Amino acid sequence: QVQLQESGPGLVKPSETLSLTCTVSGGSISPYYWSWIRQPPGGGLQYIGDIYYSGNTNYNPSLKSRVSMSVDTSKNQFSLKLNSVTAADTAVYYCVRVGSGGLFDSWGQGTLVTVSS
Amino acid sequence: QPVLTQPPSVSGAPGRRVTISCTGRSSNIGAGYDVNWYQQLPGTAPKLIISGTSNRPSGVPDRFSGSKSGTSASLAITGLQAEDEADYYCQSYDSSLSGYVFGTGTKVTVL
Q: Closest to A44 (Cβ–Cβ): which among B45, B93, B102?
């Protein structure tokens, strides 16, 4: 069974760049789409975007100007960068596999990223 | 304006049936895109419990069922159990946004 693990700093200063990496184990990163989803404290789920193993990306229009995703198939990893962060970007960030039909079938445990000086 | 709207909370006694609605638009549920449902227990990641509007992944109890009509979808939980107390989210694809969207979330309380 595939497992996903997020890694990266838990604290980011305002105006700086949030960077997270997701390591996929127990399965190959191809031929799937992989996604980042976030959840602010006490809030709901927000789709950030997704990336195909080949590198094609799709981003949430509300975040598109600040988001970039990349994939490293040799390491079975994919990554998220969110620039110019503010306190509103404080959330638990999940890396997720996108299954057939556009469902999110495997989730990482999530990592809390706090934006604060 | 949320794209997929759910009631903030529903509750029921053990053994009863509760339903959670997910109201969408012509650009998502109404366009025929599948609806998926997730259960999020406190402090954990969401878990897929209904896929393709009405299919249960392996291991999900048959107490959970999903349906869709027009621009709305529903999740029903029959024979409510204490372990069902959680947050539930619907999810679909939206053609006007060219991306995936989640419902606002519903907290289920077992009385």
A: B102
Tally the residues of chain B.
111
Whose CA is closest to A46, among A13, A88, A84? Answer: A88
For residue range A57-90, list pLDDT tens digits in order. Answer: 999 999 999 999 999 999 999 999 999 999 999 9
Taking only residues 77 to 96 of chain A, the set having a beta carbon closer than 8 angstroms to any beta carbon of chain B reads: 94
Rounded Cα distance, B37 and B49, in Å: 6
| Sequence-distant (≥ 6) Cβ neighbours of residue B13 within 8 angstroms | B80, B110, B111
Is B103 near chain A, with CB under 8 Å?
yes
User: Which DSSP symbol is given to A1?
Assistant: -
- The tens digit of pLDDT for each residue in B78-108 reads 999 999 999 999 999 999 999 999 999 999 9
Other Cβ atoms within 10 Å of B53 Cβ, number:
20
Q: Do A44 and B105 touch (CB under 8 A)?
A: yes
Residues 6 or more apart whose Cβ sits within 8 Å of residue A93: A6, A18, A20, A36, A37, A38, A48, A80, A110, A111, A112, A113
